Amino acid sequence: MLRITKDEALARATEEAGGAPRCEMCVLAGAGARGLALRETANAVAVLSRYAVRRGHVLVVLRDHREAIDELPAEDWLALSRLAWEATRALAAVLSPVRTYVAALGTVTQRANSFPHVHQHVVPLFDGGTSDRPAEVFTWQGGVLCYEPGEAEALTAQLRARWPA
Ligand SMILES: [Zn+2]
């Protein structure tokens, strides 16, 4: 993987959005159609984050653009959480992390690196030391990992092969 700086990542994400405001989570929720999904259900899609804070960072995205967890039907939240749990299993089988974080973050307003659209982060950790603290993991301050050509596709295939039935 290639580590780029926060500023480079923000510039790249903004360029990819074509300068027009759009919800990247809505784009990802349609990823199944482009063959990128690790797993998809009627309610949610799991996909590798293209701006990863750790190798194997998975995003689980609600299909519908909904912005508040407390306004979701329970079945939507449970569908997201089910996929996140499945992702932890697949990541454990393929990458053997020492621990895995699951977090629902997001912002009130849309930014280049954060979106109000409800989603969960599944982040495998490999260090076991201070760099695994949440404040060190859930930030772009230390840079962002981008996959080299073909790398994300290969990891996607590995995770699909070990995804729980
Ligand atoms: Zn959206």
Briefly say what this structure is.
The chain has 165 residues and is an alpha+beta fold. The chain is built from five helices and seven strands, in the order E-H-H-E-E-E-H-E-E-H-E-H.
> Largest beta sheet, briefly?
5 strands, antiparallel
Say which CATH homologous superfamily is assigned.
HIT-like
Shape call: globular
Strand content of the residues, in percent? 15-25%
Mean pLDDT: 90
> Total number of helical segments?
5
N- to C-terminal distance: 29 Å
Keywords:
7 strands; HIT family, subunit A; binds zinc ion; 165 residues; five-stranded antiparallel beta sheet; 5 helices; alpha+beta; 18% strand
Write a structural description.
With 165 residues, the protein is an alpha+beta fold. It has one domain (2-159): 2-Layer Sandwich (HIT family, subunit A). Helix content is 33%, strand content 18%. It is built from 5 helices and 7 strands. The protein has helices at residues 6-16, 24-29, 74-95, 134-137, 151-161, and strands spanning 2-4, 39-40, 44-48, 58-62, 99-103, 119-125, 144-146. Strands 2-3-4-6-5 form a 5-stranded antiparallel sheet. β2 and β3 (44-48) form a beta hairpin. α3 crosses α5 (151-161). The protein is globular. The protein binds zinc ion. Zinc ion (ZN) binds next to α2.
